[in-house]
Amino acid sequence: MPGNAYDEGLAIPASMTAEKQRLSDPVQKxxxxxxxxxxxxxxxxxxxxxxxxxRRNVRExxxxxxxxxxxxxxxxxxxxxxxxxxxxxxxxxTGTIVGLTQEDIRALDDEINHKWxxxxxxxxxxxxxxxxxxxxGMDETVVNGAQIFYxxxxxxxxxxxxxxxxxxLVGLINxxxxxxxxxxxxxxxxxxxxxxxxxxVIFLSCLVAGAxxxxxxxxxxxxxxxxARFVLGLGIGSKSTTVPVYAAECAPTSIRGALVMQWQVWTxxxxxxxxxxxxxxxxxxxxxxxxxxLGSTVIAPIFVCLQxxxxxxxxxxxxxxxxYREAFDSFNRIRGTQLQAARDLYLVHVNxxxxxxxxxxxxQLIDLFCVPRIRRAxxxxxxxxxxxxxxxxxxxxxxxxxxxxxxxxxxxQTGMLASLGGGIINWIxxxxxxxxxxxxxxxxxxxxxxxxxxxxxxLTGFSFFIEDKNSRLASVAxxxxxxxxxxxxxxGPVPFTYSAEAFPLYxxxxxxxxxxxxxxxxxFVLSITWPSLRDAFTVQGAFSWYASWCLIGWVxxxxxxxxxxALSLEELDRVFSIPTTLHxxxxxxxxKWWFRKTILxxxxxxxxxxxxxxxxxxxxRGV
Length: 623
Prior knowledge:
The structure is a single chain. This protein is an all-alpha fold. The chain folds into 2 domains: about 120-560, Up-down Bundle (Growth Hormone, Chain: A), CATH 1.20.1250.20; about 580-620, no CATH class. The protein has 29 helices and no strands. The protein has helices at about 5-10, 20, 25-30, 50-65, 70-80, 90-95, 100-115, 120-155, 165-185, 190-215, 220-250, 255-260, 260-280, 285-295, 300-305, 315-320, 325-335, 340-360, 365-370, 370-390, 395-405, 410-430, 435, 440-465, 470-485, 495-500, 505-560, 570-575, 580-600. The two termini are about 15 Å apart. It is a multi-pass membrane protein. GO terms for molecular function: transmembrane transporter activity. One of its GO terms (biological process) is myo-inositol transport. This is Putative polyol transporter 1.
C-alpha cells in the first residue's frame, strides 16, 4: 500500500516527497506512533504504543499543560482511549495495573447500552443550538407571507412595472440574506471563531439577526428592505456555520448525528413558526401586516443571547487555543465522568497535535482542494449542500403561498394555511431522523429519500395539468406535503450534520464556511430565479427541473459521499483517506451485489467490506 495510515489519516498527500509526507521525527517519537501500513484501516493513533511509553507520554502531557494533579486520571483515560472496545480487560492487555473501578466500567458500559444517559449540561447545550435553529427557520420563511403585502406596498408588480422586472426584484429581495451568506457571512466565520470562540460567534450572530429583524420591520423602501435582509445574512451565515460545528465538537460519538441534526429539526420548527406568524398577522392592516411578520423574528434571538454564556465553550476549540485546563472543565460538564472527560481530551490532544504539525506553513483555503483527504470531504460536503437546495425544497419554503394563490387560485388566507400545513409536516417528519441518522446512517437516508423526492416533485408539477380546480389543488397539496415528509428525515438534516463532522479540526472552520457558503449561494440562485423560471418553464416544467436534479443527486451521493455514522471526529480522517476512485468502484460493486441479491434473487456471498469498522468486533481482534 502506498503511504501509511498515519500519513493518510493526517491528510498529507501521497504525491509529496518523503520528507514532506512524514511528520517530524520528534512528534512521532513523542506520540509513540507505529504506522500500520494499511490506509483502509481506521487506526487509532494510540494503537501500538507500549504501556510504559504511554504512561510517560501522559505524564509529560499533564506536566506541560498544567494538569499535574490529574496524571493518574489521564493515564487511565489514555489506556481506555487506546483500547476502546476492551476497557474491561485493560490489566490483562497492558500487563500493568490500570486501576479502573466498577463505577468507571459502568459509565463506559452506559455509552454503549444507554447512550442517551448524558449530563444535563449537554442537553442544555442542545437546547441552545435548537433555539439558534428556530431563529434561522423563522428568518427564512416569514418572507413567504410578507411578500404578498410588501409587493403591493412598494408597487413591485404590474401595472407599475413589467412582470419580468417584478419577478426579478421580488426574487432579489427574498434572496438577499443568502447572497450575503454566500459572499460574506459564511467567510467571516473562521476569523470570528478564532477570535471569539463558538459561543461568542453565536451571541454576535443572533444580535445581528435581531437588529436586522427590526430594520426589516421599519423599512421605508424596497431598497431599504433589501439592505436589511442583506445584513440579516451576516447573522444567518455565521450562525449556520458555527452552531453545527459547536454541537459536533461537544457531542459524544454515539449520538453525535442525532444531536447535530437538532439543527435541522428545530430549523423546521422555526419554518413552521414563520408560517404561523404569517397566518397570525394576515388580517392586520396591509401596510402593518408585512412589517409585523418580518419584525417578529427579533424575539427568538433575544433568548439565545441571554442563554449562550451559560453553556460550556467547545473543548476542541479550547484545546486548539492551548487552554487545556478550561478544556478539561468543559469536557467535565458534558461527559458523564471525569474519566470520560480525560479520555476524550487526551485523544483529541493527540489528533490535534498531529493536525497542527501537518498544517504548518499550509494555506487552508488551498488545502480544501489540493490535499486528498480534505478534498474528498470538500467534494462530499459540496454535494450534500448543493443538493439541499437543488432538490427544490426552498422553492416551496419561500414561494408556497404564491404557488397556492397565483398558480393554484386560492385566496391569500387559504394559501397561507396550506403553506402552514407543509411547515407542520416538515417539522414532524424531521423528528424520526433523530433516531435513524445514527443507526440507518447519513448516506442511506439520502439514497432512500432522493428517488421519492423526485417522484413527488414530478407529480406536483403534473398536477397543474388537472383542469378541475378543486382536484388540482388537492393533488398539488398532497404531493407537496409528501415531498416535505420524505425531505425532512433525509436531505433536510444530513447536510449540516455531515459537513460539521467531515473536516479535520485545523481546517474545520474554513471547511464549514465552504459548505455553508455553497448551501446559501445555491439558495440565493434558487430564490432569485424561481419567479422567472416559473414564467419561462411554466410551473409544470419548473417542478420537473428540480425533480430531475433529485435523480442526479442520488447518483452523486451513491458514488462520492462516504458514510460517517458512529465514528469519532478523529476516526473520520481515515474514512476520507480512501481514494475517490476506490470508493466509487467499491460502491459500483456493492450496487451490483445488491441488485443480484434483492432484484434477481440470486445467491451471492457476503457483501464486500471497505472499512475495518464494518467488520464485527470479534473478527477485528487481530487488527
